[in-house]
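TICKET: design request
STATUS: open
ATTACHED STRUCTURE:
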């Protein structure tokens, strides 16, 4: 039998969160943080153009979602400012992330109409009709290889996020939906290889690849993993390429007689030294021009590097919860365990930085909760992050707090991870009522006497900087101590 060898290349970006330009990025070196500028679609475009030239165009640039939400210009235009840059960059295929739904399904449909590339997801249906909200898949011939691309996105949109995000939609379990789509592509479309473009999250995708046969490559998103090399799960190659557009993943694949025989992977830093693609840079400048003055306004200084690169506690969120406590005088403050938000090294902080720290800009409120209710909320957060079954992990990091401290055992069973809890400097009392500050649509349904403050998060942060600049938000290593 004749040997048939074919080659093609996949380029991946994931979780860029509307960072169109170079920004400060966090790197770990010998256990210590370093900060340098990286990213930007114009520099990424230079890399993409070079790869396309090297491969004679036998490549495809895929985006794994969380792309049009996360910065001031994205929020102020409901994602519209980001789309022209994606088109200029040359994205060819995308799956929606959970934050694509952050402006609601109707707005997302408007953004889809502006995109010059397909957005696919096999596990999102219109609740009333059962029709697919997105095309489940597409087939592309790349380098002579017939490839079936399938999109999957995170069901947390209708599980843990505000109801308006997924209004009128139903999200099915990828492990139930994906096998049918794979079979259909291989049977009806004669797909030789299957590539899944996913926004499910690395732990969930590892389990998915274990349980669902027939996936050749899984391009991963959602959990912001910076994988230096692909992970092999059976016959599946799984890769994820960081976040905020600081990296691109490149996977060069050789196919022999319809099966992947060899591959080469590069995690490419989108370094500030790369010469920007002029066309893409021009489009970005056009989109950002109306916002430059607002973005660049300096509101204070930080003495602490602000980041979200640590799971149990993060300096960026210490800043938020400390500001909530000062505004309200509450006993405890909660904020979401978000992963997004590029770091801010010590120095000046701008309005643009604030909108990257907390782009949803929720209104702050105070609610009364018992000690038992607070403990239950913390246990629920621990389970969402550390559930032994990856499909039960809901994404994000641990709930962010000020005003309490906990000793936890992360490998304990659900509901038993907290071994000691102190609130307002004393052992918690299960029946005592505490004042809790939070913001947005946080899960505090068990609380009572909710009072809106009329103040939104960014206004509270501006006031905190006015009072305390330069601010200090160091890691205390005592809010949650893992033993």
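STATUS: resolved
RESOLUTION: sequence designed for all positions
ATTACHED SEQUENCE:
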């Amino acid at each position: 039998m004749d040997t048939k060898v074919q080659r093609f290349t996949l380029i991946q970006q994931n979780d860029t969160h509307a960072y169109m330009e170079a920004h400060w990025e966090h790197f770990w070196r010998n256990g210590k943080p370093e900060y340098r500028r990286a990213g930007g679609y114009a520099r990424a475009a230079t890399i993409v153009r070079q790869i396309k030239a090297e491969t004679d165009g036998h490549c495809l640039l895929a985006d794994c979602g969380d792309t049009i939400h996360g910065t001031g210009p994205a929020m102020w235009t409901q994602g519209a400012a980001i789309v022209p840059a994606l088109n200029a960059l040359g994205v060819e295929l995308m799956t929606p992330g959970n934050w694509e739904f952050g402006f609601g399904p109707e707005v997302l449909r408007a953004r889809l109409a502006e995109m010059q590339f397909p957005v696919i997801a096999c596990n999102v249906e219109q609740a009333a009709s059962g029709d697919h909200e997105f095309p489940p898949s597409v087939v592309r011939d790349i380098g002579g290889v017939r490839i079936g691309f399938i999109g999957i996105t995170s069901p947390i949109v209708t599980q843990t996020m505000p109801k308006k995000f997924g209004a009128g939609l139903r999200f099915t379990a990828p492990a139930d939906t994906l096998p049918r789509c794979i079979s259909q592509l291989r049977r009806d479309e004669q797909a030789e290889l299957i590539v899944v473009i996913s926004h499910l999250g690395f732990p969930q995708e590892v389990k998915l690849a274990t349980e669902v046969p027939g996936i050749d490559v899984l391009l991963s998103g959602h959990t912001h993993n910076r994988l230096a090399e692909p992970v092999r799960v059976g016959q599946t190659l799984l890769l994820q390429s960081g976040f905020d557009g600081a990296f691109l993943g490149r996977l060069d694949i050789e196919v022999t007689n319809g099966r992947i025989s060899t591959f080469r992977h590069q995690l490419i830093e989108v370094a500030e030294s790369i010469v920007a693609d002029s066309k893409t840079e021009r489009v970005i400048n056009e989109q950002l021009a109306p916002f430059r003055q607002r973005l660049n306004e300096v509101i204070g200084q930080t003495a602490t590097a602000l980041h979200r690169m640590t799971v149990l506690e993060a300096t960026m969120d210490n800043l938020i919860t400390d500001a909530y406590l000062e505004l309200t005088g509450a006993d405890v403050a909660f904020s979401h365990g978000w992963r997004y938000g590029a770091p801010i090294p010590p120095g000046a902080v701008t309005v643009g930085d604030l909108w990257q720290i907390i782009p949803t800009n929720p209104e702050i409120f105070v609610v009364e909760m018992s000690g038992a209710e607070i403990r239950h909320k913390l246990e629920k957060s621990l389970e969402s992050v550390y559930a032994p079954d990856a499909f039960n992990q809901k994404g994000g990091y641990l709930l962010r707090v000020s005003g309490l401290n906990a000793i936890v055992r992360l490998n304990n069973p659900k509901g038993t991870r907290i071994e000691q809890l102190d609130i307002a400097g004393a052992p918690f009392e299960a029946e005592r009522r505490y004042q809790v500050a939070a913001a947005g649509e946080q899960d505090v349904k068990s609380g009572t006497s909710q009072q809106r403050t009329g103040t939104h998060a960014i206004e509270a942060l501006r006031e905190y900087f006015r009072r305390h600049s330069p601010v200090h938000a160091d890691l205390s290593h005592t809010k949650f101590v893992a033993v």
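CLOSING REMARK: The radius of gyration is 23 Å. The longest strand covers residues 259-269.
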